[in-house]
TrEMBL record, chain A:
Record's keyword terms, sorted: Cytoplasm
Designated gene of the protein: TMA20
Biological function: Involved in translation.
Similarity comment: Belongs to the TMA20 family.
Compartments, record wording: Cytoplasm
PROSITE patterns: PUA
The protein's name: Translation machinery-associated protein 20
UniProt cross-references to CDD domains, sorted A to Z: MCT1_N, PUA_MCTS-1-like
Any Pfam family the entry gives: Pre-PUA
Domain PUA positions: 93-175
Cleaved signal peptide residues: none
Species the sequence originates in: Marasmiellus scandens
TrEMBL record, chain B:
Region (Disordered): 1-37
Assigned protein family: Belongs to the DENR family.
Alphabetical keyword list: Cytoplasm, Ribonucleoprotein, Ribosomal protein
Self-association and partners: Interacts with the 40S ribosomal subunit.
Protein name: Translation machinery-associated protein 22
Pfam family, one: SUI1
Biological source species: Marasmiellus scandens
Record's comment describing the protein's domains: The SUI1 domain may be involved in RNA binding.
Family matches, as InterPro entries: DENR/SUI1_TIF, DENR_C, DENR_eukaryotes, DENR_N, SUI1, SUI1_dom_sf
UniProt feature, compositional bias: Low complexity: 11-26
Amino acid sequence: MFKKFSTSTDIAGQTPVKSSVQRSLRAAVLAQWKIEPETLDVIWPKKEGLVHVKCREHISIYTVHGEPIFFQHFDGPIYPTLRVLHKYPYILPLVRIDRGAIRFLLAGAHMMCPGLTSAGGYLPPSEEALAADTPVAIHAEGKEHAVGVGISKMSSEEMRKVNKGVGVETVTYLGDDLWALQTI
Amino acid sequence: MGAKKNRDKNTNAAAAAEGTTEASAEQQGPPPPEPKPPVEVLYCAVCSFPPEYCEFGSSLTKCKEWLQETHPDLFQKYYSDEALQAKIGTLSLEAQSKLEKDVAKKEAKADAKADAALKKKLSSQITIKRIERNKRKHVTAIHGLEAFNIDLKKAAKQFASKFATGASVTKNPQGQDEIVIQGDVSDEVLEMIEEEVGILKGIPADNVEIVEDKKKKPAD
């Protein structure tokens, strides 16, 4: 989504978000992420105004003090930026890819099932199976921090069964243009 | 620089968390009313990745040097022989060598790119153009400053206050940005560039040329 993104051409405008909209956004974030209201207050203090940065292709980035906090495509799920995810790694369910897949991920590729189901990979166990179309944190084998944020294209059970094709679509990854963009 | 900035940010966040102690990644504090402290993440100052991902970046050699200098303990963790052995563990030898080759190639590519960018920068020209408006009035257009990482808006402001005239950033017919200053100040601008006044820094004077653009033949 952010493989190519430049502030001068891809941003249409910035507007402060109305407080009523902020309230509903806050509720949506709390519902979608595994995060306590108190922790969210640290990332996004109640008193600080949220700024909506409108980008091409219906991408909205929300910033606090010019720092991107989360983003959304159209009215889909809300993804944290990778820097926020690094600080609070537990807010999204975790999947892990094996070492061979890292370099492809860092080139922006989507994650195929075999990379998730192999020995180095990790998928949530069947008790807490991942549903399709859920935002996930993509970690890498042998690494401490997340390497990307993605959205699951099929449920984790399905990934194990089919073991073919795209399992997790990469949304943002280490080194893409959103990563490079520290402040807007 | 990025790492330092991030560290600042983290400390700010920790301060905002009021009294929560700094905790490591594994510790997930149970008390619900207290906000959880963020995980402190160190970012490489060279490639901005967390240092464990430097090996996939395009500047591994420089990253390694940086890490060894600033965080020798982490360097031991990521690049000692055992760590390298452990990494190879799950990957076939073939894939590993391919990965290494890939990284080397990437690095060479990035170096070449940086070289080319530097060359381009050194060879790019700045034109100061004197444009005649009517017989005895001129404007001065400066083109090409952005190649030297100069903020055109700020530069225009600087010129405006220096010459006490209007100066603005406009698009020329080719669609490139240039600074237009009212009045004939081409020599003064050249002087300013040579003396590196204010934000006009790092421009080799040889790359600056003055041209005249007139409607009619000059009188002299």
